Amino acid sequence: MKAAAASKAAAATAEVAASAAKDAAKRAANAAKRAVELAADAREATYIADAAKNAAKKATAAADKAAAEARTSTTYHDKVLKKAIIKAREDKKLSKFQLAQMINERGQYIEDYESGKVRLNPKVIQKLEKALGMKLQLNKK
């Protein structure tokens, strides 16, 4: 009987140990799942961070490009002023070179301005107004 009781006790102990082992295995499996999820979250976070960096670089590049275009592009005022100068020059039957001589500038300067390669500064506009006998500057709002 002692042997049977010892056997039952050993079986009970084995069951408890097996149950504890199953619980430990479940906890280990859950821990492994969480580790995989965390790793996936970390990869996703890295991906999102990289995407944000790339978006910031693109936005900066776009802003730089827009700023460069704004510095070099012809504004509405420049277009209106250019048309007024061309019309006044043609009405007086002056060539670009003749007009340039009248304002003491190179002939190429008028050519470059009328083609949009350069922008006029206020002093040149004043010289053109005097040479063409008309007001060229628009009212600023």
TrEMBL record:
GO MF, one annotated term: DNA binding
Record-linked Gene3D superfamilies: lambda repressor-like DNA-binding domains (1.10.260.40)
Pfam families: HTH_3
Record carries keyword Membrane: no
Gene Ontology CC annotations of this record: nucleus
PROSITE patterns: HTH_CROC1
Keywords attached to this entry: DNA-binding
Limits of the HTH cro/C1-type domain: 85-139
InterPro entries named among the record's database cross-references: Cro/C1-type_HTH, Lambda_DNA-bd_dom_sf
Database matches in PANTHER family: ENDOTHELIAL DIFFERENTIATION-RELATED FACTOR 1 MULTIPROTEIN BRIDGING FACTOR 1, MULTIPROTEIN-BRIDGING FACTOR 1B-LIKE
Protein name: Multiprotein-bridging factor
